[in-house]
């Protein structure tokens, strides 16, 4: 058995990506908060200096009736709005609540209103702080530092995530290898003992219990097929031997001899059918195909065997198959398929005509009975008037899947038509390729 390919979406890679993505997100948030913090601290420093100077100016104006020169050289008192530098007055007219402005040639201003007692007009305390800015000159270096820090953090996250992912997925990989090559004949016994007592160990123990139940089930099935092979073949051998002895009796009448021969043939066919069904149950290859098995004798024998389904029914059966029509399917397989398809047509046809014809490399079985649906291929599915066990079409489906037989059904005004290919790769009738066709293997 060839090794299974590695999955495209490996759990280890996804864990590493989650670690790296989470670390990158944290690094970006940290960088954003760091920039906001330094900018906020810087602006808060300028606002504090302006508040102190504004309080001193208000006190001086209350005492002397005029504004005094500011104590800080980067500040100035402007008594008219139109005298504010770098067009600040125009911007202030549009945004009266704004207190921070960008000027020309890299200058930067902070503004504070001075409200003297009436009727004196409002003045403005202006601070040109471009020479005092600490964050802006080093912003590029800060961004580079944050980028390198984030890169290192992501690399560490990948290393830690890879290590953790390997430790996490290693038991799962061992578990997959332990059960990956398991077959009904070769199941790994008690493999859960080597796994830790965690979720993976719990899964391994549950699989171990399941495999133990499967092993017991396979053993029961093997014993059943072995016992069925012995117990069924022995009485069939007795029946065939007894029929051969009776057939050799010279005093046997013609009708009795025909019945005895029919019993012997049916016993032989039943032995072939048992061999085929046991092979299906053991999931082994079916008997080797006999080249160019003649279809007509086998079909006539099947029609005779299934004829009791037509007793008391006004049904006509026509067989139009060339005597040299052959099939590359194994004779037991073809017999079981024909027996179930013909028997199904006989059982579900109350009146009318059943036509069995050779259609190129396919056999065409048309009957006016009920339509065959997908549910009819399920085991034990049968109609209300059926006296069987509902296993015939289920066996047909399994045989078609095993031998890659493209069995199809067409439903029309004339009833149900089954198309059974007789050779591998044979083209079916064009009618069987209509949208209403149903593939038995689907």
UniProtKB/TrEMBL annotation:
Q: Which SUPFAM superfamilies match?
A: ATPase domain of HSP90 chaperone/DNA topoisomerase II/histidine kinase, Homodimeric domain of signal transducing histidine kinase
What catalytic activity does the UniProt entry give for this protein? ATP + protein L-histidine = ADP + protein N-phospho-L-histidine
Q: Is Kinase one of the keywords UniProt gives this record?
A: yes
Per its UniProt record, what SMART domains does this chain match?
HAMP, HATPase_c, HisKA
Signal peptide (residue range): none
InterPro entries for the chain = HAMP_dom, HATPase_C_sf, HATPase_dom, His_kinase_dom, HisK_dim/P_dom, HisK_dim/P_sf, TCS_sensor_his_kinase
Q: Where is the Histidine kinase domain?
A: 227-426
Q: Where is this protein localized, as stated in its record?
A: Membrane
Instruction: Specify the HAMP domain's residue ranges.
Output: 166-219
Which superkingdom? Bacteria
Gene3D superfamilies with a match to the protein in the record: 1.10.287.130, 6.10.340.10, Histidine kinase-like ATPase, C-terminal domain (3.30.565.10)
The protein's name in its UniProt record: histidine kinase
Supply the source organism for this entry.
Pseudoxanthomonas mexicana
